[in-house]
């Protein structure tokens, strides 16, 4: 009788030990291994569906700006806001000078000529105007902005439509009255041009 009870006790202990080991194996299982061609998922990849595919900005990556095309060389001056470099006619960025046959037109041309004389001009191309002319930010060898200098000299006015108003603060007092025809072009008063040119023809 005692032998039977002892056997039952040993059997129950063995069963309890097996159950305990099986329960522990659920938590002690070794982490899954990945084949050489595989890799463990990153925290980003474990996000909800749709989020994992979004591009992530990497602050260490540098975005290189595409350099703008430029021309360099001696300039031939046409008028107060137009030059030619290497056979390319260039309209100075962001300003408007009087036409040659308008008041101060000749003065504006020679003012620009004096600025460019003996200089290699650098023209950073920005656009093409409606007349097919190349528009460029032009500067002297020391980096001086030609458009800014012409406005400072009172030989041109800022053209906010194209410049964003960057030269407005450089305009001399009453310059828009002095260069009234250039101002009329900006304000859409081309009838003033017609009146002025008709008077010129009649004299």
Count of DSSP strands: 8
Individual helix count: 7
Going across the biggest sheet, name each strand in turn.
Answer: 1-6-7-4-3-2
Main CATH class of the domain at 70-202: Mainly Beta
Largest sheet: 6 strands, mixed
Average pLDDT for all residues: 82
In terms of DSSP E residues, the strand content is 15-25%
Silhouette: elongated
Strand-and-helix sequence, N→C? HEEEEEHEEHEHHHH
N- and C-termini, Cα separation: 146 Å
The percent range for helix content is 25-40%
Architecture of the domain at 70-202, according to CATH?
A: Beta Barrel
Q: Structural class per helix/strand content?
A: alpha+beta
Rg, alpha carbons = 40 Å
Describe the protein in words:
The chain is an alpha+beta fold and 203 residues long. It has a domain at 70-202: Beta Barrel (OB fold (Dihydrolipoamide Acetyltransferase, E2P)). Helix content is 37%, strand content 18%. It has helices at 2-28, 105-116, 146-152, 160-163, 175-178, 180-187, 190-202; strands at residues 70-73, 75-79, 82-85, 88-92, 95-96, 121-128, 134-139, 157-158. Strands 1-6-7-4-3-2 form a six-stranded mixed β-sheet. Strands 5-8 form a two-stranded antiparallel ribbon. A hairpin with a 2-residue loop joins strand 3 (82-85) and strand 4 (88-92). 20% of the residues are buried.
